[in-house]
Amino acid sequence: xxxxxxxxxxxxxxxxxxxxxxxxxxxxxxxxxxxxxxxxxxxxxxxxxxxxxxxxxxxxxxxxxxxxxxxxxxxxxxxxxxxxxxxxxxxxxxxxxx
Length: 98
Hints:
Layout: H1 4-14, H2 19-26, H3 30-37, H4 47-60, H5 65-71, H6 77-97
């Protein structure tokens, strides 16, 4: 099965659309659409936004947005660990400043 990002990118390119064009049509910043295509979901501020952006992007391309959202299984364990480590690092820096 192809990845969500690959499916979106392939369909967009097949239709001859640019990220800028899609961005203007669905009111989602280009950087977030690019993050979806790259499956860099951590760059998008929250799971609700990820799912909404997938749904809107896919629907704009004439695809079943709900089907793609169903394929999305949330952040991978490695992303969750990276966020946890980042938060720990931030806490350590704050404690050093005090």
